[in-house]
Write a structure and sequence with these properties.
single chain, 19 helices, two-stranded antiparallel sheet, MetI-like fold, mainly alpha
Length: about 375
């Protein structure tokens, strides 16, 4: 097993490198980089894409916005020195001075000038910094990338952890019951219910919950927004726990509703597949109680794929961070962070989080394999590879 884990760890290096290369290359073809975003904000346009409204009111076209330096500098009426300072600050250029120059690099000095940094070199610098765990600062928030992620993480942990736990707690017993009652009216009705729940979009269910229970048209039971109350610091420990669960009830329900169907049907089908096997018939023939057969023999084999996949399921929910759910309930989590970073072309946040989450995701893949071995020691990945 040790050799298998070592091979998987070594495979992380080229895999993560490939992820970063592909995503970095794609961003080079997307118009409206961080410099253009900053210029658009200085002109009071909100963001660079508002330049394409084409309403005839003097808005710039794509060529004026993304053309040569002289084009968009002249069109926006901003000095060239300001543009050059932005390029240096964002890492697209650097100041190079003549040989023998002893002063501080300064564009105002005739001995120094701006030198553009190519995409390949910028990628190399970025990866070298990441290997040293230096993820830089956000272009537009003046805060370190990791500090920003840690600031948003409580919301994503809340949605990811509780949604996964609740889905497992409900779906596994329900799936087992459906397998035992396969073909009965209970199986039919519950299948119809979970399919309907799966068909309801999460955002629509979230709005329904708000209307019904958060002061919409009916009841004012749960808060409308936020993860905690404004007086959180003044509450006792018990009151803090109550306040926390009071706030997360609706968003967790909204993010969990669609997870029941897949996990319940997976559990049911796994049990049905195991129940039909010869060892189950033999156990029943020996006179073992049905409960002993199900939970003493069938459960471990049937739950192999369900239990072993828990780390991957949690990480998947955690990283995906429902943008719509966070927006509806005014929660500031990783989903909104990723969306805002993509819109603003905040490259340090985009690539820094991509590197860290990609690394964690690959490590969780190895952890899932270890969970398989823990649940069923008969599994040997080294022999399977051989």
């Amino acid at each position: 097993m040790g050799a298998y884990i070592l091979r998987r760890l070594l495979l992380i290096i080229p895999t993560l490198f490939g992820i970063m290369v592909i995503n970095f290359a794609l961003t080079q073809f997307v118009p409206g980089g961080p410099i253009e975003q900053t210029l658009a904000r200085f002109q009071g346009e909100g963001d660079v894409f508002s330049s394409f409204s084409g309403d005839g009111g003097g808005n710039q076209n794509a060529e004026e916005t993304f053309g040569s330096d002289s084009d968009y500098i002249g069109a926006r009426g901003l000095p060239k020195e300001f543009i050059e300072t932005l390029e240096i600050e964002f890492g697209f250029a650097r100041i190079v001075c003549e040989d023998g120059y002893t002063g501080e690099p300064d564009l105002d000095d005739p001995a120094c000038q701006k030198e553009d940094i190519g995409a390949i070199e910028r990628f190399g610098i970025m990866m070298w910094n990441y290997l040293r765990l230096d993820f830089g600062e956000s272009y537009f928030r003046s805060i370190g990338v990791m500090e920003l992620v840690l600031e948003k993480m409580p919301v994503s942990i809340t949605l990811g952890l509780w949604s996964t736990v609740i889905a497992y707690i409900v779906s596994i017993p329900l799936g087992i019951r459906k397998a035992v009652k396969d073909g009965t009216s209970f199986d039919t009705y519950t299948s119809a219910a979970i399919i309907v729940a799966y068909a309801i979009p999460g955002f629509l269910f979230a709005i329904l919950l708000l209307v019904l229970f958060a002061g919409g048209s009916y009841f004012q039971i749960f808060p409308l927004r936020g993860l905690t109350s404004e007086n959180w610091d003044e509450l006792s420990l018990f009151a803090k726990l109550a306040d926390y669960f009071w706030h997360i009830t609706l968003p967790v329900l909204a993010s969990t509703i669609s997870a029941f169907a897949t996990l319940t049907l997976l559990t049911k089908n796994s049990f049905l597949d195991e129940i039909k096997k010869q060892y189950v018939m033999t156990a029943r023939a020996k006179g073992l109680a049905e409960r002993k057969v199900l939970y003493g023999h069938v459960f471990r084999n049937a739950m192999l794929i369900v239990i072993a996949g828990f780390p991957a399921v949690f990480i998947g929910v955690f990283f995906s961070g429902s943008l719509i759910i966070e927006t509806i309930f005014s929660l500031d989590g990783l989903g909104r962070l990723g969306f805002e970073a993509a819109v603003a072309r905040d490259y340090p946040v985009i690539f820094g989080t991509l590197f860290v989450f990609g690394l964690i995701g690959l490590l969780v893949g190895i952890l899932s394999d270890l969970m398989y071995v823990l649940v069923d020691p008969r599994i040997d990945f080294e022999k399977r590879e051989g």
